[in-house]
């Protein structure tokens, strides 16, 4: 998969056993960075710039090649021949996602050529990286386009990882809150001893997206992120700006809800951060880091804790995603959420960087077994549905042999 940070393709080679509580073994993990020129093209498209239909079509096929290359590389690193794969699960690259019919948050007047989403009303989503290309290049059946089935049933189409969180992380004695900090931050809440129907989750707002955008802007693209939060730690929080941002409608809206670059991408960055005359890079970055920490903590305090029987010191916050490497961000979360025992997902057999790619391997496996992949309490869909579409590769016989 590739997330809202648009960095490249994460590929996980996973051995899966058992559908109800799958036993997962990560055999290999790799990241194939996007070439700089490809990333710039994706940023233009995902940022809402007007581009010809041919540009989207070209990127769709180009990313199909890159996703196939990532799949073949991780097989090589894991010493597993592609012909041994049951399937490839590909989330693809999101270039547009608008959940329920609500305007994006905090944009004000649209910036020419950028914020076309402010004029949209219809909920829709689009992920590219043509699965037929992946299937042709690898010879393996591909499950792709996971979000659309949920949205067809009235859901947000995201987040989809919560079902996997439930299958892998649920605990009879402890409340588990799985926090993934990618470009967007999202949570899965698994009550102690709870059933799947009791699980809920939602996007809390920006994860690394605003921070990474500031780093790229002020370093002129020479750096993509703030390593360990070192630069941010040198700045001071701009309290007025932070207060204004935390009052935005998105943070107050009840779940289910999802977010993406349409809400917290380039236009958001320009309006709220880059327009601040005289503001320094370090202070802006520190404020963006605090926005992520405070919006996550506020979401838990407002929408999660009232629905749980809290057991201070026993309930767990399981953190994954790129933000798990930001020491300042993790320190702030621990300060803001002292009632939770914060741990990295690595302790549960889900390496922080690989977790989301592993999750889509599990979702693809469920699709092959005709098992549902969404949680309506999380996405707002009318019912659970089987996710994704299957493109058959040259290993069609592998699928025919599966016990359907």
Give an overview of the whole structure.
Residues 101-118 have low confidence and may be disordered. This protein has 404 residues and is α/β, with parallel strands linked by helices. The two termini are 26 Å apart. It contains 15 helices and 12 strands. A 5-stranded mixed β-sheet has the order 9-8-7-10-11.
Provide a concise account of the structure shown.
With 404 residues, this protein is α/β, with parallel strands linked by helices. The protein has helices at residues 36-46, 53-77, 131-138, 147-152, 162-169, 209-218, 239-246, 249-252, 261-264, 266-274, 281-304, 327-336, 355-368, 376-379, 396-400; strands spanning 8-17, 23-33, 88-90, 93-98, 124-128, 142-144, 176-181, 184-190, 200-206, 316-320, 341-344, 389-391.
Write the topology of this structure.
Layout lengths: L7 E10 L5 E11 L2 H11 L6 H25 L10 E3 L2 E6 L25 E5 L2 H8 L3 E3 L2 H6 L9 H8 L6 E6 L2 E7 L9 E7 L2 H10 L20 H8 L2 H4 L8 H4 L1 H9 L6 H24 L11 E5 L6 H10 L4 E4 L10 H14 L7 H4 L9 E3 L4 H5 L4
Parallel strand pairs: 3-6, 7-10, 10-11
Antiparallel strand pairs: 1-2, 4-5, 6-12, 7-8, 8-9
Rg estimate, integer Å: 20 Å
Strand neighbour order, sheet with most strands: 9-8-7-10-11
How many helices? The count is: 15
- The total beta strand count reads 12
Q: Return residue spans where pLDDT drops below 50 for at least 5 consecutive residues.
A: 101-118
**Average predicted confidence as pLDDT:** 91
Order of helices and strands: EEHHEEEHEHHEEEHHHHHHEHEHHEH
Helix residue percentage: 25-40%
* CATH H level, superfamily name: ATPase, nucleotide binding domain
Structural class: alpha/beta
- CATH class descriptor: Alpha Beta
Architecture in CATH? 2-Layer Sandwich
* Separation, N- and C-terminal Cα atoms: 26 Å
CATH topology: Nucleotidyltransferase, domain 5
Main sheet, how many strands, which sense, barrel? 5 strands, mixed
């Amino acid at each position: 998969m590739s997330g809202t940070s648009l960095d490249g393709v994460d590929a996980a080679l996973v051995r899966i056993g058992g559908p109800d509580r799958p036993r997962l073994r990560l055999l290999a993990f790799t990241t194939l960075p996007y070439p700089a020129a490809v990333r710039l093209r994706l940023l233009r498209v995902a940022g809402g710039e007007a581009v010809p239909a041919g540009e989207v079509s070209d990127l769709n096929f180009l990313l199909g090649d890159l996703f196939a290359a990532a799949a073949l590389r991780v097989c090589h690193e894991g010493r597993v021949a592609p012909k041994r794969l049951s399937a490839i699960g590909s989330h693809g690259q999101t270039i547009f996602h608008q959940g329920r019919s609500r305007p994006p948050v905090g944009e004000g007047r649209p910036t020419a050529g950028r914020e076309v989403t402010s004029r949209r009303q219809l909920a829709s989503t689009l992920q590219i990286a043509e699965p037929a290309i992946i299937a042709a290049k690898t010879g393996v059946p591909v499950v792709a386009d996971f979000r659309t089935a949920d949205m067809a049933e009235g859901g947000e189409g995201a987040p989809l990882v919560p079902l996997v969180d439930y299958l892998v992380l649920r605990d009879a004695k402890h409340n588990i809150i799985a926090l993934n900090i990618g470009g967007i931050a999202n949570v899965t809440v698994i009550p102690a001893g709870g059933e799947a129907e009791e699980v809920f989750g939602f996007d809390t707002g920006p994860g690394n997206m605003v921070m990474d955008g500031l780093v790229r802007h002020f370093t002129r693209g020479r750096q993509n992120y703030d390593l360990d939060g070192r630069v941010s730690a040198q700045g001071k929080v701009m309290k007025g700006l932070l207060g204004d941002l935390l009052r935005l409608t998105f943070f107050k809206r009840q779940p289910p809800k999802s977010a993406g670059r349409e809400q917290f991408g380039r236009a958001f960055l320009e309006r709220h951060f880059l327009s601040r005359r005289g503001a320094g890079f370090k202070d802006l970055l520190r404020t963006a880091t605090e926005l992520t920490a405070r919006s996550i903590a506020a979401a838990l305090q407002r929408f999660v804790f009232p629905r749980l029987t809290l057991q201070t010191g026993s309930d767990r916050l399981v953190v994954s995603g790129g933000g798990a490497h930001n020491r300042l961000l993790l320190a702030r979360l621990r300060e803001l959420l002292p009632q939770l025992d914060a741990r990295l997902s690595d302790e549960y057999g889900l390496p922080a960087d690989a977790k989301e790619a592993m999750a889509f391997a599990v979702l693809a496996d469920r699709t092959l077994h005709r098992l549902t992949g969404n949680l309506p309490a999380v996405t707002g869909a009318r019912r659970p549905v089987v996710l994704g579409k299957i493109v058959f590769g040259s290993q069609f016989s592998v699928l025919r042999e599966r016990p359907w």
